[in-house]
Write a structure and sequence with these properties.
Elements: H1 17-24, E1 33-35, H2 38-52, E2 58-59, H3 64-69, H4 72-83, E3 91-96, H5 100-103, E4 113-114, E5 117-123, H6 132-147, E6 158-162, H7 167-179, E7 184-188, H8 193-199, E8 204-207, H9 213-221, E9 225-228, H10 234-248, H11 252-270, E10 280-284, H12 289-298, E11 305-308, H13 317-325, E12 329-331, H14 336-345, E13 350-353, H15 355-362, E14 368-370, H16 371-376, H17 382-398, H18 401-417
Parallel strand pairs: 1-2, 1-3, 3-5, 6-7, 6-8, 8-9, 10-11, 10-13, 11-12, 13-14
Antiparallel strand pairs: 4-5
Helix pairs in contact: 1-2, 1-6, 6-8, 6-9, 10-11, 11-17, 12-13, 14-15
């Protein structure tokens, strides 16, 4: 866009602690202890139940009296001891949020173990972490620092996958990597502490989302090869498989054959959508928006503008370079107002965005769907991902006139009522 970035007040992310809770509450035997005030506890208990693992958060019920009265650490220690009475609890993440006093909890004043449980402090203050995807990185790297078996010898031809992906995608990755000679795969965020221990021994690490900067740096520090990108679209699929093979020193001919085979499968899956036309906007806060845009461009769709809440990091440079070369403007650390301005500038046929943006688009008769529920909640990788995403978008683009009809209908209804 030829306009300056909007200085709006609506950053596109929910509370960062939510992302950390998605990682922590899903670990078997984990019971989160929240170090926050009552307001944080209320909101984050809701999202952890509804979006994360249907698991409650336990807190010492901190309010101004405890926070300012100097009893906060004692209250936390007492709550940790009460949680540890349950023998099934194996991990107690103590999550601190934005309240200045809770954010500054001294880790050395908390126990490292209570009962059968390991105790680990995870700092998730919003003044330090801008978005909830980046809080996943903080949670994963914190657990790896504590539990990763980095001191042990590396497992030959082993890969750690880093990124919260659709379950079918995880199985597909495992099957493809097995074909090129990978001996074992572990996925993070994991559901067991053993996943984090095992990941420390991985010979190569595939960082599937570009916001896992701390996690990637930790693996590099311990000598693991870090592979960027992911297998979304034919070209990226071939490149990703090849990079995994190079990182592990696998048989080059075998790797090349599998890379070409999988890329061909993606192209075959995309073939039925070769006549697909339309101008699409991609705007999300998940952190996986750029590879999705690459898929749409590869399918022949026009994507002049895309946005994400995460920062531009070294882990997304390839996607950024490809999109820029193909004419897509990418807005990082975007605001809702940036996306609204793009809707006014371009004549989009479809908007894939956040809830507020979707409402804004639909009011203008533009088809719009929620990015998280319609993109991140579907397979994205390899041929199955391409067919799933393009099939859905093709159906929406073919029915785009229905949105204009609805807009005209409701405008007529309003005029009749007035």
């Amino acid at each position: 866009m030829g306009k300056k970035s909007c200085s709006g007040l609506h950053p596109q992310s929910m509370c960062p602690a939510f992302g950390g809770l998605r990682v922590l509450t899903r670990i078997d035997g984990a019971q989160v202890c929240m170090a926050a005030d009552q307001g944080c506890l209320y909101g984050l208990t809701f999202v952890s139940q509804f979006y994360a693992a249907r698991k409650s958060i336990i807190s010492s019920g901190l309010m101004n009296a405890q926070i300012s009265g100097g009893t906060m650490t004692d209250d936390l220690r007492r709550t940790i001891e009460e949680i540890a009475l349950d023998p099934s609890v194996r991990l107690i993440p103590v999550v601190s949020t934005c309240v200045a006093e809770t954010a500054g909890i001294a880790e050395e004043l908390l126990p490292r173990q209570a009962g059968n449980a390991e105790v680990v402090l995870v700092r998730l203050p919003a003044f330090q972490i801008r978005t909830h995807p980046e809080a996943k990185d903080v949670a994963v790297s914190t657990l790896l620092e504590r539990f990763g078996d980095f001191a042990a010898s590396r497992k030959p031809k082993s890969v750690a996958l880093v990124g919260e992906i659709f379950p079918v995608d995880a199985m597909a990755v495992g099957a493809v990597l097995q074909k090129i000679g990978v001996s074992s795969v572990v996925a993070l965020p994991g559901t067991a502490l053993e996943d984090y221990r095992e990941a420390g021994r991985a010979e190569a690490v595939a960082v599937l989302h570009p916001f896992y900067e701390k996690t990637a740096a930790l693996f590099r520090e311990h000598g693991a090869s870090v592979v960027e990108g992911n297998p979304i679209g034919a070209n990226a699929t071939a490149g990703w498989i090849s990079r995994i093979g190079e990182a592990l020193g696998l048989d080059a001919e075998a790797v090349r054959a599998v890379a070409q085979e999988e890329a061909s499968k993606v192209r075959e899956a995309m073939a039925p959508f070769s006549g697909l036309e339309g101008r699409v906007m991609v705007a999300g806060y998940e952190g996986n928006e750029l590879p999705v845009v690459r898929l749409l461009l590869e399918a022949g769709l026009d994507v002049p503008y895309a946005s994400t809440s995460i920062a531009r990091t070294p882990l997304c440079l390839e996607d950024d370079r490809v999109l820029s070369m193909l004419g897509t403007e990418v807005r990082y650390r975007k605001f809702l107002e940036d996306d609204m301005a793009a809707i006014e500038e371009y004549a989009f046929d479809l908007v894939i965005g956040t809830t507020s943006l979707d409402s804004y688009a639909k009011e203008r008769g533009i088809p719009a769907i929620y990015y998280t529920n319609n993109i991140s909640a579907r397979p994205l990788f390899f041929a199955a991902g391409a067919a799933t995403v393009l099939g859905m978008l093709g159906g929406l683009l073919r029915r785009k006139e229905a949105w204009k009809t609805m807009k005209e209908y409701f405008e007529g209804t309003r005029q009749g009522l007035s």
